[in-house]
């Protein structure tokens, strides 16, 4: 049986900034609109964290039983390393996704019932990333779905459950957060191109090849900057505090594009991109909050 430490590692805690960031950014927009509902923001955070852990365990299970993780470079894989049985990891995935669904029902019941459909789509997207007979992660669509669900849906949804309205700044923030979340996956798949090729896993990185995947990573970081300008133009220039994310982002881009790192040398890029996304979201939240306070004085 896997130890608690192995289960924790299998949940891939370094990916959790991708779950925290959209809730921070979406709540920042709600604060700017003077309609923040803090208990709903907290529930949205729980949903996002459980979905992230759920998709990580689901990915561990599905890739493990297919043998894709047999020669994986990177964080702990429970099934691939045989530290836990496939059934146990599958159960952990279902419990996490089910927990996200239950908390999401509370948000839907107190906001709008059509959100149940959105939540169901999120859960299905989490499972079928690598699950099922035709996983979309094996067809080069993983980055698209990450951008949609951990960017647009998560940010706009977090704002909506608090304001009950669709806000243009939330769209721009969702694009920025989604671009950086997508960049994390691009870096991950760039690292895994050799092993994914051998396992028959056709990710976007496998389809594009090494060089174009590196440039895609750089373009996603650039897109986050452009989206930040969109948020500033529709709210306040205080959101440029999010440029603090430039410090880890530049380091990560240097490793990907400048150093042309491969294999395990790309692992720090995942951490730095995750930190960049979290700082980006924190900067948005802080800037929108400061702007709200100043306008209220």
Walkthrough of the structure:
The chain is mainly alpha-helical. It has one domain (17-291). Helices cover 73% and strands 0% of the residues. It has twelve helices and no strands. It has helices at 4-10, 17-32, 38-66, 86-109, 115-128, 142-163, 168-191, 193-199, 204-208, 210-234, 246-258, 267-296. Helix 3 (38-66) packs antiparallel against helix 4, helix 3 (38-66) runs antiparallel to helix 6 and helix 7 runs antiparallel to helix 10 (210-234). The model has no long low-confidence stretch (mean pLDDT 92).
Descriptive keywords:
12 helices, 297 residues, mainly alpha, 0% strand, globular
* Gyration radius, in Å: 19 Å
Number of discrete helical segments: 12
| Amount of helix | over 70%
How are helices and strands ordered from N to C?
HHHHHHHHHHHH
Number of strands: 0
Overall tally of domains: 1
Shape descriptor reads: globular
Unreliable sequence segments: none
Compute the average pLDDT.
Answer: 92
Biggest sheet statistics: none
- Termini gap: 58 Å
Structural class: mainly alpha
Strand content: under 5%
What's the quick description here?
The protein is mostly helical. Helix content is 73%, strand content 0%. It starts with a helix and ends with a helix.
What's the arrangement of secondary structure elements?
Blueprint: H1 4-10, H2 17-32, H3 38-66, H4 86-109, H5 115-128, H6 142-163, H7 168-191, H8 193-199, H9 204-208, H10 210-234, H11 246-258, H12 267-296
